[in-house]
Amino acid sequence: MNENLSEIQYDVTKKSKIRKFYEANKIFIFSTITILLIIVASISFYLDNKTKKKILLSDNYIKSQIHIKNGNKQEATKILKEIVFENDDSYSALSLFLIIDENLITEYDELVKMFNHLLENNKFEDEMKNLIIYKKALLQSDIVDEMELLEITKPLINNNTIWKPHALLLVGDFFVSRKEYSKAEEFYIQILSLKNLDEKLYEKARSKLVLIKNE
User: The pTM is what?
Assistant: First the structure.
């Protein structure tokens, strides 16, 4: 009997402490629950919007390809430019590449502006970012001087990226076009020193070196 009474008193005391804790902290408890619900709802809303945006960009990218196929390049250009400035880590870059591949925009300054926008406003995976840098260097190689081209290609040449040999070829060709053959040779030789490349890249470098020797 005494044991049962003790248990009842213990339960009452325990419930009383819990109630007192609740009464003293109910505002904090409700505030915490409310904040957590808002956070969960916000994350769900963000992810839902992000998914919808990705789907819309995909649809618009496909529409631009259809416009190109049908000869409506003006409408395709408009759509692709909008996608470039949407700052999507996939479709923004793909849209700029399509603009260049289809010669939809040929104005140098406008293209450079779009490249800079991509690089400054997006967090790309390393190799995607390196591809964008390479394509930017390719665009500018006929316009910029030696120092500018070397600065643009530095992130590729100084790092272990799949675009390194392509950048070395680009800079080598740049110097060949200016008849600075000794400088060009240095970059072609660097390609031959790299390991595990596609054999076609080695062949290109060797053929460039042969042409230089015949000059």
Answer: 0.76
Name the H helices within the chain.
Answer: 2-69, 73-84, 91-101, 108-121, 126-140, 146-157, 164-177, 181-193, 199-213
CA–CA gap between residue 188 and residue 209 (Å, rounded): 7
Q: Round to whole Å and give the CA distance between 52 and 41.
A: 16
Distance CA 66, CA 131 (A): 25
Residue pLDDT, tens place only, 135-175: 999 999 989 999 999 999 999 999 999 999 999 999 999 99
Residue 62 burial class via C-beta count within 10 angstroms: exposed 0-12, middle 13-18, buried 19 and up:
exposed
Nearest-Å Rg of the Cα atoms of the chain is 30
Q: Is 107 helix (H, G, I), strand (E, B) or coil?
A: coil
Asked whether the CA dihedral 107, 112, 115, 121 is positive or negative, the reply is negative
Structure tokens at 12: 């009452």
Give the number of other Cβ atoms within 10 Å of residue 164's Cβ. Answer: 21
Contacts 24+ apart (CB under 8 A), 133-136: 133/163, 134/163, 134/166, 134/167, 134/170, 135/97, 135/100, 136/112
What confidence tens digit (pLDDT) does each residue in 57-66 have? Answer: 999 999 999 9
Cβ neighbours around 167 below 10 Å, total:
28
Distance of CA 59 to the CA centre of its chain: 20
Residues in Cβ contact with 29 at an 8 Å cutoff, skipping those fewer than 6 apart:
22
DSSP structure class, residue 195: S
